[in-house]
Amino acid sequence: xxxxxxxxxxxxxxxxxxxxxxxxxxxxxxxxxxxxxxxxxxxxxxxxxxxxxxxxxxxxxxxxxxxxxxxxxxxxxxxxxxxxxxxxxxxxxxxxxxxxxxxxxxxxxxxxxxxxxxxxxxxxxxxxxxxxxxxxxxxxxxxxxxxxxxxxxxxxxxxxxxxxxxxxxxxxxxxxxxxxxxxxxxxxxxxxxxxxxxxxxxxxxxxxxxxxxxxxxxxxxxxxxxxxxxxxxxxxxxxxxxxxxxxxxxxxxxxxxxxxxxxxxxxxxxxxxxxxxxxxxxxxxxxxxxxxxxxxxxxxxx
Amino acid sequence: xxxxxxxxxxxxxxxxxxxxxxxxxxxxxxxxxxxxxxxxxxxxxxxxxxxxxxxxxxxxxxxxxxxxxxxxxxxxxxxxxxxxxxxxxxxxxxxxxxxxxxxxxxxxxxxxxxxxxxxxxxxxxxxxxxxxxxxxxxxxxxxxxxxxxxxxxxxxxxxxxxxxxxxxxxxxxxxxxxxxxxxxxxxxxxxxxxxxxxxxxxxxxxxxxxxxxxxxxxxxxxxxxxxxxxxxxxxxxxxxxxxxxxxxxxxxxxxxxxxxxxxxxxxxxxxxxxxxxxxxxxxxxxxxxxxxxxxxxxxxxxxxxxxxxxxxxxxxxxxxxx
Lengths: 302, 322
Fold this sequence. Notes:
heterodimer; A: 73% helix; B: mainly alpha; two-stranded antiparallel sheet; 76% helix
């Protein structure tokens, strides 16, 4: 059903051009109240986080101050301090910035790999498709979480770049599979065979004809994945196998709650970070769900 | 059908082989070998003896011979020695596996106990306030990371309200085998299992809801209604029977999620199972235990997927691979 959504509508005399997938998505997003509110909240959070982090010095914030250990929220430290006397609010801002940036980086990298692999496998089919699908099937049945932890533990010179690389190595498969399936369906349609008959080179058909028709599905998938990736990153950091200590993430703040005393009595250390992860993931998910509805003509609001 | 099952098992064999090669290579890449642990215990060991022991343990053999030996040992149930615990890995796992299986089983049972009534209510009476509440819950649950939810549950119900114990799998004082022992085990199980289930269940709720909505407008349901079958029976006999089977078959796919979930849940609730052992071992660099656990999880995931694929294709012939 979804394939038909993106087919150009019959040319209307009043308006020469049918609205593009992107403008339909935007219209649906604004019309869905929950998604609109989510979009506003998320934008505000991101503006504050990225804006404030320009003025905050990461080195300054991760510096230990033994005179102010675990002090509760005050005018000087808005959200109190952690076990090293470091300002929690500053860490929250830096952590949110790192978590979001890294989640986004992983999403974009896996999206790019998934797109290329999925388009190639779906369009050409045959043995290329077979080989690629066997590899994807294999990666999908691996115990993802445990293997990432093992990789993180044994990689020499571990840093943010290696973390992104390790995560991306596992997470591209789902996208590649989805895009392959959609490409397979798209390739059978008349416009592709017409182009082929006219002698259009394969790469042009893939890039300029099939790809635009997949754009809404890709956007939906990437949005929902962004939320998931932020969750996985902060979860791994919580366990101690995510971002290195020099780059605090929201998961770093939450991980202080492994100390029962902090969990029980010093809510200001871990609760704001937990709620911030929750709010960001909820917002991104609501936006993603609205986009998903927009990509499906039957569910549009109008 | 038989042909499908055979083909499906044939696909699994190279996967199993690749998995074992990958884990073997990872084990090789981990710092230290089978002797490093002994060296730590006895630092004055003479390099000559060390070299002899290396030779004896076969650590100087070519890689492929080591791999074959590793697989052979594994098949015979020999997973090596844990150096922090100074006992065979098999024994170490045996003491923990019960807790993890218990926790996973409890999560699964609760997942279905929650998902079935909620999914049915929401699919049957769409667009009522009950449906809206359930859909809202499923959206929120879908977006919530397990570790944050589990932490908040522990904070609220464990520490603040004090309804449940905050760690361990059983009280130390109670005697094994008594009623009090089992009650205490259950009491320790409730909070982690509930945290896991409340998050895990949303996917099943959403699936069940959309299945029911799709099925209830199909021709056979209309026919049943036209014949005058009571609404209750239409749901139980006609609609749900079609939706329940795939849900039961998803059990095998759930294994991946349960393994990942148990790592978080066991670490948050200090519940002594395999997930906690995995994290402890990797921090203590007890790599023989790590390797064994990754291998076991990998095999469990493979077998789980295999079972689900077979059951699903038995239920629904459309998805058999050619």
